[in-house]
Amino acid sequence: MRQHAPAVFPLFRSRLTAAVLVRVYVGGGEQSVVDLAAAVGVNRGNMAREVSRLERAAVLASRRVGRTKLVRANENAPFYAPLRDLVTITLGPAAVLAEELASVEGIGQADVFGSWAARALGEPGPSPVDIDLLVVGRPDRDDLHDAVQRARERLGREINIVVVSPERWRGDDDAFLVELRNRPRVPVIEAAE
Fold first, then answer.
1. Is the pLDDT of residue 6 over 80?
2. Listing from the earlier edge strand, what are the strands of the sheet with 131-137?
3. Which secondary-structure segment (H or E) carries 188?
């Protein structure tokens, strides 16, 4: 007799599951099933089934407002904090940005910096609101903007971009960049040696 996998932690079984976890655990707040489906690019029926499966596993929680079902991360689950950290590290800003920026030519290096990087590397502090992205190189601005817009939609977070030339990045005459080099950064695209 075939036994089914336990309902607890049916995570990362599909790209849909991963996309939902990123939107809910990284994006934060409540989102309707319809909005989640649109953001992830699936039909409402598939999203409703995925949300129900993740609710049964206590990964998500929901409430109804009229006919609208609002979904959020289940912050009361005993595994909430470790799961949030796991999703953020494995599927979050750095991973999504790496995927979206991969096709943009002219990027020599890209890093997440600021509060997202600090929290990812263990610095205590409040939960980050937006994502700061450093891009070193000379990418086409339209291509960069399009890639970052796709990442914004996937993550459900605002992304602030700082673009600097390789020469300016290596220089020591810009106090902001000197400070940035000494603060936590999470690699998105590794600098070529």
1. no
2. 159-164, 131-137, 107-113, 185-189
3. strand 185-189
